[in-house]
Write a structure and sequence with these properties.
about 400 residues; alpha/beta; two-stranded antiparallel ribbon; 12 strands; about 10% strand; globular
């Protein structure tokens, strides 16, 4: 028989520890976000559909993006036992400098559309976390503005080669003069991908008010207040700002870019240069032999060629082909710190986050970006401890198996 007794008041008080109420709405919702998916859900609630879909969407059937995310989910880890890792070191040396974490913030276009703090929030959060921030050619904050927001941190610049080459050359000179240490020469955008969500939403730059956008805005007055009471939303590095994103890209980008253009930019740029948008082993080897400082395996977040190769699947073959000394980075599909750990284990020197950062920005401005970084840091540290490794250098391919759903047919 169970012996029963009346509870003692002191014992009841121990069990009834009430959490102090948080009256700051932003802090409350960000503290409740435990994953990047949680931040995405908050962002979707707080951001008009056209702006959210511009961030969240990809090209055509969005297969490239969904496959990239699925590839990270299809990971099996192999933890070591009796290898305690009470303290973990998440820092890395990348492209001649330090990063406190094995990821940086990827270049994203038109960032102030998502939330008015835009790139300033991203650069400030990166500075506080000790990680690199990458400014896009299609950014909504100037090169000099990002430098001022992150004066002592590492700033990188992502460059598109324009039809008017002098525009690209001048941006390269300005980024160098502002102290940016690495250039991301982007090669996967000869023309714009078919971003169907934007077309269906009638999304354009600057945003156009329609009956649908007005109806959608009614429950989101804070976004419109920010939009209407802050400086005009426009590209900081381009003078042409009218039309859909696809139309702007097609008007500005040049599908004839080649290794000759890379040679010109290489001569102009005094720092490190990496090629972003590499999608084959053969191109990886060719670029290494051409003398660049590194590559980013990327399908542009699935926003260009749908059904493009999955960067995470490509990673082990590229690492084997280019050797251990050549810098290989990866983006597309990263939504969890475990995705980053798996990438490092399979040979990535570094990773970049795009949408994950923007979900935090839309969820809560600068504080939301800080929350994104905190979530990923916690997930990285926990995954490392559970694997039994104290440093990123201890991660090896033996820690990870890539489970395959999409296996190529060998002919």
């Amino acid at each position: 028989m169970v012996t029963r007794q009346l509870p003692k008041p002191a014992e009841l008080l121990e069990l009834m520890q009430f959490k102090k109420p948080q009256f700051d709405g932003r802090k409350r919702r960000l503290e409740a976000a435990l994953t990047i998916d949680d931040l995405r859900a908050i962002a979707k609630r707080r951001t008009p559909k056209a702006a959210f879909d511009y961030t969240d969407g990809a090209a055509e059937g969005e297969l490239s993006l969904s496959r990239a995310r699925q590839a990270f989910q299809d990971v099996e880890f192999h933890p070591g036992i009796l290898t305690p890792a009470p303290e973990v070191d998440t820092s890395v040396e990348i492209l001649g400098g330090p990063s406190a974490l094995p990821f940086g913030i990827a270049p994203t276009g038109f960032t102030r559309l998502m939330q008015t703090e835009g790139e300033i929030a991203g650069a400030g959060a990166a500075a506080a976390a000790g990680i690199p921030f990458t400014l896009s050619t299609l950014g909504t904050t100037s090169i000099e503005g990002v430098r001022d927001a992150n004066p002592h941190g590492r700033n990188w610049f992502q460059l598109y080669v324009m039809r008017d080459r002098e525009i690209s050359y001048e941006l390269t000179r300005r980024a160098a003069a502002a102290g940016f240490d690495t250039l991301h020469f982007t090669v996967d955008t000869p023309v714009a991908g078919a971003r169907l969500r934007d077309k269906r939403n009638g999304f354009s730059i600057p945003p156009q008010l329609t009956l649908g956008t007005i109806v959608n805005a009614i429950p989101r007055p804070w976004w419109w207040f920010d939009f209407l009471t802050t400086p005009k939303l426009e590209f900081a590095s381009l003078s042409s700002t009218g039309g859909t994103v696809g139309e702007l890209l097609d008007a500005a980008m040049d599908p004839t870019i080649s290794y000759d253009d890379l040679a010109v930019i290489r001569d102009l740029w005094p720092g490190r240069i990496v090629i972003k948008g590499v999608q084959t082993v053969e191109d990886s080897v060719r670029l290494r032999d051409a003398g660049v400082d590194g590559i980013v395996l990327s399908n542009h977040g699935g926003r260009q060629l749908d059904r493009a190769p999955i960067p995470f699947h490509l990673l082990p073959d590229v690492r084997k082909a280019v050797g251990d000394e050549f810098t290989v980075m990866i983006d597309t599909g990263i939504m969890n710190g475990a995705d980053i750990v798996a990438s490092v284990a399979l040979g990535a020197d570094f990773t970049l986050i795009g949408r994950a950062y923007l979900y935090g920005l839309m969820a809560g401005g600068r504080a939301g970006v800080d929350r994104t970084i905190a979530i990923l840091r916690s997930e990285i540290e926990r995954t490392m401890r559970l694997l039994g490794v104290s440093t990123l250098a201890e991660l090896t391919p033996a820690h990870v198996t890539q489970l395959t759903r999409l296996a190529p047919i060998r002919r």
